[in-house]
Amino acid sequence: RKEVEQDPGPFNVPEGATVAFNCTYSNSASQSFFWYRQDCRKEPKLLMSVYSSGNEDGRFTAQLNRASQYISLLIRDSKLSDSATYLCVVNDGNKLVFGAGTILRVKS
Amino acid sequence: DADVTQTPRNRITKTGKRIMLECSQTKGHDRMYWYRQDPGLGLRLIYYSFDVKDINKGEISDGYSVSRQAQAKFSLSLESAIPNQTALYFCATSAASTDTQYFGPGTRLTVL
Q1: For residue range B21-45, what is the model confidence (pLDDT) as tens digits?
Q2: Residues B36-75: pLDDT tens digits?
C-alpha cells in the first residue's frame, strides 16, 4: 500500500463548479498535512496546510479526519487558472511524503 | 531573483556518464532535499541534509550521491547515469522550524 494515495483523475469540470479531492495516508503517527499545487512541468508550491479543525483560504477548504486517515480539498467556484495537479503531502517523521497527485482541468 | 535555483535546467546525456546537478538557495534555510519525479509516481526523496555536516539517504538513494558544500549549496551526482534515471529532479529547502518546503524550478534529465 502506498503511504499517500490519491485519485489521479483527471477531474474535468466547468468554470464555476465545486470540486473535491480526497487523499488517504497510511501512517497514523503523521502530524502535519499539506496540499501543494503543481502546474505542468513546474515546481510544486504550497497551497495550504491542513489543520485538525479544518481550514479555509478563500475558495479553498481543507479537512482532516485523523480517525479515518483521510484528507480532503474542496475548491468552490472553479477558475480556469485552478487547472493544475494537486499533491497531497504528509509529514512522516523528518520528511514529507508526496502523493502522486490529482489532475484538475477547468474548462470554459 | 529566485530563492532556490537549479542548474542545469535541462540535460541530455549518455549511459555511463557522470552528471552533477546543482542547487543553490538564498532563503537561509538549513535543510535541503533532492527529489525525483516520474509520471504517476509523484515525488520521491533521494537524499536530504539538515545542515552542512548532516547527510541522509532517502527512499531511492541507490545510484546517487550528494555533497553539501555550504549551507546554501547542495549538489546531486549520478556517478554512472543509466536510462531509468531519466526524470525531473527537484531541489527543495525548508527552515528547521517548519515542514513547509520551497522547491527549485527543476532539472529535466534524459539519459540515452
Answers
A1: 999 999 999 999 999 999 888 899 9
A2: 999 888 899 999 999 999 999 999 999 999 999 999 999 9
Pairing of strands A95-98, A84-92: antiparallel
**Strand A70-75 versus strand A19-25 pairing type:** antiparallel
- What's the burial of A40, exposed, middle or buried (CB within 10 Å: 0-12/13-18/19+)? exposed
B72 SS3 class = coil
Write out the three cell numbers for A25. 495516508
Give the pLDDT confidence of A42-68 residue by residue, as tens digits.
Answer: 999 999 999 888 899 999 999 999 999
What residues are paired with A23 via a beta bridge?
A6, A71
Q: Virtual CA dihedral for A69, A74, A79, A84, nearest 10 degrees? A: 0
| Residues 31 through 70 of chain A touching chain B, CB cutoff 8 Å | 32, 34, 41-46, 49
Q: Contact A98/B42, CB-based, under 8 Å?
A: yes
**Nearest alpha-carbon partner for B33 in B1, B61, B14, B62:** B61
Would you call A107 exposed, middle or buried from its count of C-beta atoms within 10 A (0-12, 13-18, 19+)? Answer: exposed
In angstroms, rounded to a whole number, what is the distance separating the alpha carbons of residues A89 and A91? Answer: 7
- Please name the amino acid found at residue B66: V
